[in-house]
Amino acid sequence: DGGITQSPKYLFRKEGQNVTLSCEQNLNHDAMYWYRQDPGQGLRLIYYSQIVNDFQKGDIAEGYSVSREKKESFPLTVTSAQKNPTAFYLCASSIQQWNTEAFFGQGTRLTVV
Amino acid sequence: AQTVTQSQPEMSVQEAETVTLSCTYDTSESDYYLFWYKQPPSRQMILVIRQEAYKQQNATENRFSVNFQKAAKSFSLKISDSQLGDAAMYFCAYNGGSQGNLIFGKGTKLSVKP
Prior knowledge:
heterodimer, A: 7-stranded mixed beta sheet, about 0% helix, B: 12 strands
């Protein structure tokens, strides 16, 4: 089945550690996105990528990094510089960036302990 | 910059009744798309309905329909014959112009009473 797979579903991080969230899609979509969801805040864009080896900062990129070495994969690293990383993270993809809907993974809940 | 506003943080509806969720947006673009997404307790984002701005006809998907008022920049979602499974967070989203990415409102939590 085609879709977007995020792993792990739950992730715990100690303060000062970097962690990487996985996102894989087999929809042959060009564009991929990372959103952060906090209660009452809706979804806020962290990073997005239109094509392989290219990505752009979203509204809240500080403390995060990404790579896009393969069309299918768009991992997100939450670095120790992110001061408040506890949140729900959603990965999405779309055929193209403009005028089209996005399809979402099931999300990763990150908790700092 | 484009913005999306959902003015109802929470709504409640009786099972089998009709409810309307509000959404307004701000843009200077003429060509764009609007969406309603549903996020149930599982937190999986599901596309409910989409509307192309150049189409005057309001989109409909089974029990879900929209009232798209382009001049007023309004995009409300009507759910008819509400079911218990409709209980979820509903997000309005915009995609268009040079921005390209989906811009979301803060969501409306819908409760359905049996």
